[in-house]
Request: fold
Amino acid sequence: MDIDYKSFLSMVKEQIGTAQVKAVSAANKEMLLLYWTLGQMLLAHQSAKGWGAKVIDLLSRDLKKELPGQKGFSVRNLKYMRKFALEYPLLTIRRLNQASEEILRQDTSQATVQKIVSEIVQQVDAQTEDQERRTFPIVQQPVAQLDQQEFYHSVLGGVSWSHHVILLDKVPHMGKRLWYMHHAIEFGISRNILAMQIESSLFERQVVAKKVANFSRVLPPQRSDFATYLIKDPYIFDFVQAKEAADERNVEAQLASHVTKFLLELGKGFAFVARQMPFEVGGDSFYADLVFYHIKLKCYVIVELKAREFRPGDASQLNFYVNLANDKLKSEGDNETIGLLLCKGKNEMVAEYSLKGFSNAMGVTDYQISRAIPDELKSELPQIEEIEDGFKEL
Reply:
């Protein structure tokens, strides 16, 4: 093994050196390509030479010795490189690229995304069965066959290594993983936010969940599909845990954080307009909880918050505010206003019947307090009424 390993170590050092002279502007993509290539090299040599897992420990130690000051070659990271290459062979990369192009080309809707995600899983599962029977040739054909530009422009190349590590750890489902990659690229979210959204099952809440809304009946098909896809059920209010002796200042600081998280949970495209917006009707004043404008939908969105389960009369109240927004806020270039009611639970059949007969676009969805918060701490955390009050300070 000594002669073979020394030759292998030399090849790895050469590959690292080549990658490091590339343009700084492409540093992330170069690093990802390097990590994928090193992973392929590890797989190939382990397969051809019969080396066990200990070669990774040895390689990490020697790379640190041969390349002092260079980071990224810990045992843990080298194992992730191997996993990165194992789970993304060349054929899988190309199939992911095809699916990625289809997602970008299609009109965004739950049905199209679910179809693409399902097809990816079927294709990759079939390939995995073949992969389990194959060996990794020492000539490194996958590396030689991969066009660098093909990798740079792939969905894999658009996500940082730290994002990939989270996805490798937390999302074994390849179709969901592709969706989260697109989500991270589109919204520019950090690795911590990505981890939080995976933990809160964002994919299931946005792509899989059955939405209670009348959009398909009252909106044109393309707007209906996108509006339905856009909303989540449930929304997750991920509260920060209070300190043991939470004083007023501590609660206020957390409340400000919760408002920010609420806006983040709504998603990209929502521009905050007002809280408790006053409307004068017949000499009386009425106040809409939250008013947003959605840039892509080109319409106002009225959000009403309820600290209880949905009641049929809530639909009438929301419809009232949507009518006011259409009359007093909507301009010539805007589309019809959409209403969204967030409540603490609902009977879906009751909600669906309550929306029938209204010509305004409205949806009803749940919200939940973070499931990670122990019951004994929930009493010390701000409630939904406090979130509503928090918007009054904006």
